[in-house]
Design brief:
mainly alpha, globular
């Protein structure tokens, strides 16, 4: 943390630069281990550059006193997601080793439950951290849905694109930008997507079982989005009132003290 308790752009840039370097190192290790082709390299590099640019822009806008331990955990997850993204892009030319693919993805999913806890315990919860966490989650689900769609069919892409369609719709329908109450059901459904897609990607179960599990996950995700859309619609009809009875409800007190709009909908 900066000693004068003000935003220090150099410290933030150092954090993101270290993350970019770690992303390059992971891609180099993957390239050496599996002989990754041009598609994997280019996609992984594009992900790393985009993450570095977007994160730097967000830091300049929010100007936090420090990057924070929780954001470092999320950045580590983003680096792993970059590796998974490269493997998925490379899979269009040759299938990646299942153990490597599953290992990277599993660690990224497990760490999803770490950064939020770290933020709450250290008192460093922030809108930036919550949004960073959501975007990493959403992109990992998108990448996994692309990979699984190659074996189960293009309908699986609905899982990965549903959140992005929601955000796009919010540009035309302002009431979708209303705040949403934290929801354990939403968190559970969101977490289930990654687990189910990872199991399907691993190929350890029969094709029919994978099909049924992913279809069930899609159904639950559709229900979750539908429920939130209905709540936002009712809140909009009441003149923009919050989509929950009270910000002091027991469930709200258990979550990060960060208000997330419907358009930023993720696993919070």
């Amino acid at each position: 943390m900066a000693l004068n308790h003000t935003y220090d752009a150099r410290l933030a840039q150092h954090e993101t630069a270290v993350g970019a370097g770690a992303q390059l190192l992971l891609l180099a290790l993957l390239g050496t281990a599996i002989g990754m082709g041009p598609a994997g390299w280019l996609t992984g590099l594009a992900f790393g550059i985009a993450t570095w640019a977007v994160l730097n822009r967000a830091l300049r806008r929010s100007q936090p006193l420090s990057f924070g331990v929780a954001n470092r955990v999320t950045l580590g997850r983003a680096i792993l997601v970059g590796g998974v993204t490269a493997l998925v892009a490379d899979s269009f030319e040759s299938s990646p080793p299942v153990t490597l693919f599953v290992g990277l993805t599993a660690v990224a999913l497990i760490l999803d439950g770490v950064d939020g806890k770290v933020a709450r315990r250290t008192g460093t919860s922030s809108a930036l951290g919550a949004r960073f966490d959501m975007e990493v989650d959403a992109f990992l689900i998108l990448v996994l849905s692309v990979y699984v769609a190659m074996t189960l069919g293009p309908w699986v892409l609905l899982i990965g694109t549903m959140r992005y369609a929601f955000v796009a719709a919010a540009r035309a329908l302002p009431w979708l930008n209303g705040p949403l109450a934290p929801s354990m059901a939403r968190k559970t459904v969101a977490a289930l997507q990654g687990i189910v897609l990872l199991v399907a990607a691993a190929g350890v179960l029969p094709h029919a079982v994978n099909f049924a599990l992913v279809l069930l996950a899609l159904g639950l995700l559709s229900w979750s989005f539908g429920r939130d859309i209905a709540r936002l619609w009712r809140a909009g009809a009441r003149g923009g009132q919050p989509a929950w009875p009270s910000a002091t409800a027991p469930e709200a007190r258990q979550e990060r003290p960060v208000e997330i709009s419907g358009a930023a909908r993720g696993s919070s």
